[in-house]
Amino acid sequence: MEITDKRELILQSAARAFGTKGFHDSKVEQIAAEAGVAKGTVYLYFKDKQTLLFEVIHYFREKYMRELLAATEPHESARDKILAYTKFHIKQFPQMVRFHKLNMEQLTQMHKDREVLTRMRDEQNRNLRELAAIIQHGINRCEFRAVDPIDAALICWGAMQSSVHWAMINEIEDIDESNAERMVDLLMQGFANG
């Protein structure tokens, strides 16, 4: 248990450092000190600072998925689950923006690593499958018409990602949670008249 705890303490400390100072201004010595371990202990778990950054991102994604499932699980209707999903995603937005702005150069480099890319793809596909499961739940309950759940999940997820991307490009620091209601209503009702 102690090994897992040290690794998690390092990840949490590194997440705070990368999220507030960025990759270049975050020092392994400071990350180790905040985690309550020696600098050498960091290197027992992570071969270098770049690997530590990637593991922080993986840690964030795993945490995101756990919390996302906890946010959607209590709801019975598929629409309420999708709304909870969208609200959760939007609530994470300010933290995601800060982290990505501070670490953009390093994150771009990570996409060149085949192993990293495969792991990121697996994580994104898991997220998509969770959303597709919600849509299938809605189809099973006759809330939604019979559609391919993966196609519908791609449309929902794409809408959420696009709104976040639009806000980042336009340097908007926060997205109002009411955007989730409007987005889900638009997805559920469409915009055709009649």
From TrEMBL:
| Limits of the HTH tetR-type domain | 4-64
A GO molecular function term, named singly, is:
DNA-binding transcription factor activity
What does the UniProt keyword field contain?
DNA-binding
Pfam families (alphabetical): TetR_N
- DNA-binding positions are 27-46
InterPro entries to which the protein is assigned, alphabetical: Homeodomain-like_sf, HTH-type_TetR-like_transc_reg, HTH_TetR, Tet_transcr_reg_TetR-rel_C_sf
Output the superkingdom of the source species: Bacteria
This protein's name: HTH tetR-type domain-containing protein
Q: What organism, scientifically named, is this protein from? A: Tumebacillus flagellatus
The lineage is:
Bacteria, Bacillati, Bacillota, Bacilli, Bacillales
